[in-house]
Amino acid sequence: MTSPERIEGHGGELALAALRAYGVTEMFTLSGGHVFPLYDAAHKTGFPIFDVRHEQSAVFAAEAVAKLQRRPGLAVLTAGPGVTNGISGLTSAYFNGSPVLVIGGRAPAFRWGSGSLQEIDHLPLVAPVTKYAATVGSGEEIPGAVAAALTAALTAHRGPAFLDLPLEVIFSAADADALAAPDVPKMEPDPDEVARAAQLIASAERPVIIAGSDVYAGGAVAALREAAEALHVPVFANGMGRGALPPEHQLAFAKSRRTALTGADVIVVIGTPLDFRLSFGDFGGAQVVHIVDAPTQRASHVTPAVSPAGDLRLILSALADYEGVREDHAEWIAKLRMAEDAAKARDAEEMAAETDPIRPARVYGELRKVLARDAVTIGDGGDFVSYAGKYLEPAEPGTWLDPGPYGCLGTGMGYAMGARITYPDRQVCVLMGDGAAGFSLMDAESLARQGLPVVIVVGNNGIWGLEKHPMRAMYGYDVAADLQPELRYDDVVKALGGAGETVAKASELGPALARAFDAGVPYVVNVLTDPADAYPRSSNLA
Ligand SMILES: Cc1ncc(C[n+]2csc(CCOP(=O)(O)OP(=O)(O)O)c2C)c(N)n1
Ligand SMILES: [Mg+2]
Questions:
Q1: pLDDT (tens digit, 9 = 90+) per residue, 290-333?
Q2: Predicted pLDDT of residue 178
Q3: In the CATH hierarchy, which fold is given to the domain comprising 191-336?
Q4: What residues of the chain score a pLDDT lower than 70?
Q5: How far apart are CA 483 and CA 521, in angstroms?
Q6: What are phi and psi of 393, to 5 degrees?
Q7: 219: left (phi over 0), alpha (psi -120 to 50) or beta
Q8: Could you state, in order of their start, the residue ranges of all structural domains in the chain?
Q9: CA 298 from centroid of its chain's CA atoms
Q10: Could you tell me if 405 and 94 are in contact, meaning their C-beta atoms sit under 8 angstroms apart?
Q11: Which of 64, 78, 408, 425 has minimal CB crowding within 10 Å?
Q12: How far does CA 16 lie from the centroid of its chain?
């Protein structure tokens, strides 16, 4: 019997009831006996289970729903190797501030040390890459442990959490207090710091905003727009912040970043770290305002002029309400617009270029013609994905998924699964290097078997391009950088229950993409691209 206040059942049932209370609506998993009770609980109550061929895909899928839907994503992994295979996914979620919960099975506690199958203490392995990690000691502690893990995961700065349930805890019956809906604390910023930031931005001559993933994660997209409009500041974006301002907005910029960062006198970085993607926060003479969603996110390697910390919506709304004197920055905005338009014209030429072999730019030129405004695009690869970042222009926030600063290859199929489940009716398109394909393409089987169609455009240059070109530049030769040329990744996916085709001529790209989006199954457009083409970058190490 289960009352609204008390809940009875085996450990899997107690856990699932608590997870539901926190808004978890599906699990991603790969089978293992240690976690059967969670499947039993799900099966009996119609809770969706999606299964994969490698645990990393389960965690990446959980991360995708967490990133896109801004609620917890759940991966259930079996004891030992199931959990260790999920660690790159957990680490990516840690770097990305994604509220992912991994529940692991665990060898029985009562005979710990006797050599049970897959007996290993997961906590020391996952502790450095989670916000919360614990072993649940008894059935009645399960709801409280789920609440603690998910509250930690959902509290800014967000991030992953881990729980493992020893065999006897997950299989035994118990009763426990049922959970109410979560109460996630919001941090109020220091008003003086916010006022100082507003004043700096308003009185700057050439300010720039760079908005990152936490702006989307914190539900602060509308507040960002209001702040930018109120203070007349051009906006660039990275990660999930891309598309925060629609591309046609007069303050939305993407391609004039270098002009902006070298010319600005105040650079406002919001909801993203001052890491390698942003010159480690050192922009020459410009003053930096770093707005973060928690004090832990303040940089320790540079000292910004001011760094307000707290709920981003509150901070950005306060900036929008600033009542002091402000510059209109019109000249600066006009200058950036000129640079932006010139860069756009160059890009348009590259995206239309008729070359043989095909250059990646053309792939994106053709893709842009068929992508809907709300399409979800996912990057998993090296140079091919750098080009995606350059040429694709997300029009809505929360539609672009890249691996983030951890830069882990292999997110593709897991992210695609999470995106397809989030948006059953939208286009979902993975841009995948041929090297990256090796990490997760087997999970095209999981997508095909579970009726989850996605389009996979493989940039097939036959090399680990982002490594081969830099190695040649550095040493004059390269090793361990070649792949089989012209490999038929489309045939691989056909064999796995999907479909696809290989494209060698630019003129064939458009029709192939149209077929792919109509296919209704996982579909590979395997594009043979020019191996000589290298993405131009200032630092070639990745
Ligand atoms: C898990 C993992 N292993 C290795 C790397 C190093 N790495 C970064 S980019 C890259 C090459 C990717 O090649 P491919 O996916 O074919 O894309 P291309 O650069 O050829 O377009 C490698 C090996 C990484 N980022 N992640
Ligand atoms: Mg490649």
A1: 999 999 999 999 999 999 999 999 999 999 999 998 888 999 99
A2: 87
A3: Rossmann fold (3.40.50)
A4: 1-4, 538-542
A5: 27
A6: -125, 85
A7: left
A8: 6-177, 191-336, 353-528
A9: 21
A10: no
A11: 425
A12: 25
pLDDT of residue 540: 36
For 275-289, letters b (16+ CB in 10 Å) and e give eeebeebebeebbbb
* Residues less than 5 Å from ion ligand 2, measured at CB: 433-435, 461, 465
Asked if 6-177 and 191-336 have one fold, the answer is yes
List ligand 1's pocket residues with C-beta within 6 A. Answer: 381-384, 407-410, 433-436, 459, 461, 463-467, 542
Taking the complete model, does pTM exceed 0.90, yes or no? yes
- pLDDT tens-digit readout, 478-521: 999 999 999 999 999 999 999 999 999 999 999 999 999 999 99
Strand locations in 45-96 (E):
49-51, 73-77
Residue 75, CA atoms < 13 Å, CB-side half-sphere = 38
Q: 20 with 150: CB under 8 angstroms?
A: no
C-alpha 408 – ligand 1 centre gap (Å)? 8
Q: Which CATH fold topology does 353-528 show?
A: Rossmann fold (3.40.50)
Question: Closest residue (by CA) to atom 6 of ligand 1?
Answer: 542
User: Residue 499: helix, strand or coil by DSSP?
Assistant: strand
In this structure, whether the domain defined by 6-177 belongs to CATH 3.50.50.60 is answered with no
Provide the residue type at 372 as one letter. A
User: In this structure, which amino acid lies at residue 122?
Assistant: H
pLDDT tens sequence across 136-148: 999 999 999 999 9
